[in-house]
Amino acid sequence: MIALAIPRSLESVTAVWATVRSGAAFVPVDPTYPADRIAFMLDDSAARIGITVAAHRDALPDEVDWLVLDEIDLTDGPVAPIDDADRPTVLRPDHPAYLIYTSGSTGRPKGVAVTHRGLASLAREERDRLQVTAAARVSHLASPSFDASIFEQMMALCAAAALVVVPPHVYGGDELAAVLRAQRVSHAFITPTALASLDPDSVPELHTLLVAGEALPPELVARWAVSRQVIDAYGPTEATIMTSLGDPLTVGEPVTIGTPSRGFRALVLDGRLQPAPVGVAGELYVAGPGLARGYHDRPALTAARFVPDPTGTGERMYRTGDLVRWTADHRLDYVGRTDFQVKIRGFRVELGEIDAALTAHPQVVFAHTLGHTAPSGQAVPVSYLRLAPDADVTAAEVKTFVAQHLPPHMVPAVITVLDDIPFTPAGKLDRAALPAPDFTAPAGDYRAPGTDLEKLVTDLFAEHLGLDRVGVDDDFFDLGGTSLLATRLLPALGERLGRRVPIASIFTHPTPAELAAHLSSGESAGSGIDKAFRVLVPLRPGTGTALFCIHPAAGLAWPYSTLAHRLDDDRPVYGLQLPALSGGPRHDTITALARHYVREIRRVQPHGPYHLLGWSLGGVVAHAVAVELRRAGEIVDTLALLDSHLVVGASPAVGTRDMLRDLGLPVDDGEPSFEHAAAVLDEAFGGGTGLTAAHLERLHAGSTDTARAARRHEPDTFDGDALFFTAARSETPVPAVAAWHNVIAGEIHQYRLDCDHHEMVSARAVETIIAVLSARLTESDAALRRWGRIEVHAAGRNGDRRN
């Protein structure tokens, strides 16, 4: 093993090719790295011979025998090509070509052993797919410590093209543009971060860009692909740099990482190692000739990441840790890293999705979002932007823009505008160099309280969020607040006011100004709580066609709140709850209950198209509601069933334990009394639910009636399609979906979720439900806009639309 401790230069390129031709493997070592990291890499790799230059020799350990290039005369050396007769052993394709160190999650770097076979496969792919000719001029921008430098060298030298070595102190911006322009570079392998630092007009001869290393924002494609060839490439170090390559990108078209490279296979798998459906994100596994031998001297880590093909072929695959999804035309869409996911307010958030929304703004050229702990102790997203040179937009305006496209929990709590993007030696974003987010409102955005009530609310916000001050227009959730924190804030506010303040108030009135105005409006706490007990309860406001979610067996629609807040902002969502909760009538048949719900639904939306969803027993009721709406001649565009079992003959009675579990509160074995269950709710939600033992007793009676009715129910056929979501961890020998084919005339589209039955509306599970449901609702909305007014004909097919 030969250590190469040379900055990017002609010498570093020469040393790489000389070492490989000799039959030895090399380990690149950045001489500017901290001494302890250099020492670790040299010791771990067992390198005993090294090549460097005089400027860095003194900083390198003496345990290695260093050849200092600029202190020896090589002019009289042999010029004949090296062959196997000169090498200690015959060079084989599976021998290592280099050992390259990548960051380890534990802080200990891990060495990846890459073979000559992988490099040969890469060379063929570069030659055939990129069509580089001898007339090309290829930039060498990557640090020799990163495998992108090997890609650049092979792209040029394997095609007999010119390799333009960028000076080692240049990473991006005007300095890089000057080099590319002066050297008439035609081809570049570059990261999106470095590309965002360049002005397309400053590099007129640069006509082919291969972009890799990070997710490529569509905004960069819009800037660069107008008159240039921009290709998105993907590949981990563990699979010899490139495993997939896209076609040249077109402005306005989706950005994908294309199809697998020569000889590679790609699998997109969910958490249970099952293939993810088209459009649903899963982890990428790759197999092919470029797979590395593994991690040097790390057998356990190698076994964890280089795994047998789960489909049973026995072939080795590399588990990338990258989230991707298949598109309808069988291309790979890069979503982000599994380790770039964070939990925000209980939701699992892919930070790359926030970046994509930010760069959709026409004046934002770069965005990067991190999970950060706010002063309140809660995790929030914070974003860093670089704006276009002539931009006149503020961070607050960008925040307003992105709030129109993302659910509230994904809107960045703080947006910081950068003058310059900090780079690592690899040309990627240096996250450690980003400034700490400032959670205090800018002076121009701060508005002081104007009334005693506003002052009280802002003081309590600041106290619970751990901030010095809060303005009346500051959003509780933007500042790091969560529903859990709200369960402490609202009771504290109620204690100061001498009356109960419903927890739901903070979701509909999240700023001190809005909350104070709401509390001053004369609406009593009791009336606010009573609204939450009505049969039809609004879970989310909006102006579009509504989604109606029908309660599970326990009778409450509150569990759907997570799902409701993940849908697009203009989608109203209503929950339907057992009438018994508010003292209404009890029904002894599912059909009678469905007709009651149809009346409630048509009170807020007289005509279709209707969108219905039901979890568990709620799916049986939702199906009956769909049948009743069709009998009335209405259109039902969506019927979504969440792990609903049509055959319920053996279903146990619903108890207080089930009610608590539906609200996300697991309890110990046994059946709590109504008083105990109410106390558990008070403790968990700070007394803000308003549910008393009497409410729970009424709910229990209504739930028991509904369970009995379900066992006797003989459903009629619904003449439309349905979406069916299966809880894979709770699957029975006879799948629940099987019985539904007898009472649904159209197609049933089934989706398996990695959860059990009681987790169907958890933050984790709703991600897949939202992806499928949003696509269905968007399709329905598009049809509605296309056809305009809907005329309903009782004799027509479900979904007929006429002008």
Automatic annotation (TrEMBL):
GO terms for molecular function: phosphopantetheine binding. One of its GO terms (cellular component) is cytoplasm. Its cofactor is pantetheine 4'-phosphate. This is Amino acid adenylation domain-containing protein. One of its GO terms (biological process) is secondary metabolite biosynthetic process. The keyword Transmembrane does not apply. It comes from Rhodococcus rhodochrous J45. Keywords: Phosphopantetheine, Phosphoprotein. Residues 448-523 form the Carrier domain. It comes from the Bacteria.
